[in-house]
Amino acid sequence: QGIKSYAPVTQERLNNPEPANWLQYRRTYDGMNYSPLDKINTTNVKNMVPVWTFSTGVNEGHQAPPMVNNGVMFITTPQAQVIALDAKTGDLLWRYKRQLPEDLFQLHPTNRGVGMWQDMLFLATVDDFLVALDAKTGKELWAKPVGDYKKGHYLTLAPQVINGKIIVGTSGGEFGVRGYIVGYDAKTGNQLWRTYTVPAPGEPGSETWKGDDWKTGGGSAWMTGNYDPATNTAYWGIGNAAPWPGDAHPGDNLYTASVIALDPDTGKIKHHHQYHPNDSWDWDEVDPPILMDVTKDGKTIKALVHPGRNGYLWTLERTPEGISFVSGIPYVHQDVFASIDPKTGRPTYNEKTTPKVGKDVTFCPSLWGGKDWLSATYSPKTKLLYIPANDNICGRVVGEKKPHIEGQLWLGAELEKLDLSMKDKKVPAYMGELQAWDVSGGKKVWSYKFPTQLFASAMATAGDLVFVGGTSDRYFRAFNATNGELLWQHRTNSGISGGPTAFEVDGTQYIAVQSGWGVDAQRIQDSLAKLGIPGVSPDVPQGGVVWVFAVK
Ligand SMILES: O=C(O)c1cc(C(=O)O)c2c(n1)C(=O)C(=O)c1cc(C(=O)O)[nH]c1-2
Ligand SMILES: [Ca+2]
């Protein structure tokens, strides 16, 4: 066992990946989650069949995209496992499984993938270690503690790799951590820098916090950032403020619910844009914006495009000098923002839909947002952005004041009273919606609606297809990217919430995805089932399986 010939992952290959490969979480640094492969296309996708499957032996949410480097596939699973497979045959090459501490409580038992550099792989673990593996053998090279799981710090993201630096961000917004992003040296595992996402007194932005709130303010950073090599700038999304009700942490609370521009060499925050100040809804804006071109007043601008958890589709302009607001438009029903400042994009709020300590508040979209951490995808060919959205689902938060105890859940909300409800209190025409947007025109071009939730990353390909799972009926689907027609579907073992990938080996194109339902997809399912909506069952079978498809 082991891999005899392995193609080292260089910076050149990360900047310009071969079409056949999928070397990063969203394939390219711009975050488009797009594959230039087109052998599988709108004409022949109807003949797509499974060619192999692989059972991971683990339950819970399998959210990692199957990543492929010259015929070698790497997947990660919950419980800090990495599996290397022959991408063509499904043969097991090696398996790494970390021994997790017995007292580890996992609020989000998942992992979103590896980072690749030279002949090494990097895994960020739920017990809060960054682990380096030999890509050829799966042997552990080093393991470094990032924070302390006993204090509510944990890692679920795929590490970001830039010029031999491995960058990870902490989870823990629901434990009242003070969020941070950390850069490591790939070879030695030495920490190079650590940047807190909540400023300490005296640091820029500290004026947006009162008293000691900054110490427990949240701002976790639990999704891989994107990167602009032209300016050597990493763009990371920042999570919710803690605890949830905004009156428990007065002020704008930088840099929660923001995008920050980071220098990956030093960790210095160059710029930021806050989508919504004083977050009160658990609207982590951790999914980083897609770096793409947008037309504005007849001119092409370098944009940052982000379908927010707050239900608005944000377009920002990125320049070496900063980030500026271009537009913000709701893509799902949103009853929280009363107005948006046309110059700055700063929203004002409706009091009635803003959670507060001691208040029982219902707001739309729910705390899981118009879109949670799932990746949208942009096709430079159709020039459309595809958003896996949820509409018509609202949520309830009953705010409560509790002392912060390190390492303990600290929502600022009564756990038993967290609920979902339907807009207008009736069974809606749809909940999940795959939306296609002309971002420059600010128009929704087509959408495909599902009777219940949609909770999965989407991938567009040059075959003019959009692939997405995400429904509790366990289907994996392909849509015509131009008009939204459903062209193909296949039932899998469990529900899919991870991202699909496309790759090629020996001239054959494949589509891969992990099926394995769990984490918040299951929590939403349980809440929806309680509402007694016909056809909605909490019973979605679990168990992870890698599926690989090709055209017959
Ligand atoms: O604030 C945080 O640190 C944090 C971390 C995570 C995570 O690491 O998965 C999630 C969330 N928040 C969260 O709010 C959320 O809705 C969520 C869903 C999921 C999931 O895996 O489906 N993770 C997380
Ligand atoms: Ca959160």
TrEMBL record:
Cellular component terms per the entry's GO annotation: membrane
Cofactor(s) needed for function: Ca(2+); pyrroloquinoline quinone
Stored SUPFAM superfamilies: Quinoprotein alcohol dehydrogenase-like
InterPro entries in alphabetical order: ADHI, PQQ_b-propeller_rpt, PQQ_MeOH/EtOH_DH, PQQ_rpt_dom, Quinoprotein_ADH-like_sf
Record carries keyword Oxidoreductase: yes
Amino acids binding Ca(2+): 174, 240, 282
Record-level Gene Ontology MF annotations: calcium ion binding; oxidoreductase activity, acting on CH-OH group of donors
CDD domains: PQQ_ADH_I
EC number: 1.1.2.-
Keywords, ordered alphabetically: Calcium, Metal-binding, Oxidoreductase, PQQ, Signal
Active site: 282 (proton acceptor)
Pfam families linked to this entry: PQQ
Entry keyword annotation includes Metal-binding: yes
Domain Pyrrolo-quinoline quinone repeat residues, every copy: 22-319, 454-511
Cofactor note: Binds 1 Ca(2+) ion per subunit. Binds 1 PQQ group per subunit.
Origin superkingdom: Bacteria
Annotated pyrroloquinoline quinone binding sites: 112, 156
Family to which this protein belongs: Belongs to the bacterial PQQ dehydrogenase family.
PANTHER family hit by this protein: QUINOPROTEIN ALCOHOL DEHYDROGENASE (CYTOCHROME C) (PTHR32303), QUINOPROTEIN ETHANOL DEHYDROGENASE (PTHR32303:SF20)
Stated name of the protein: PQQ-dependent dehydrogenase, methanol/ethanol family
Gene source species: Vineibacter terrae
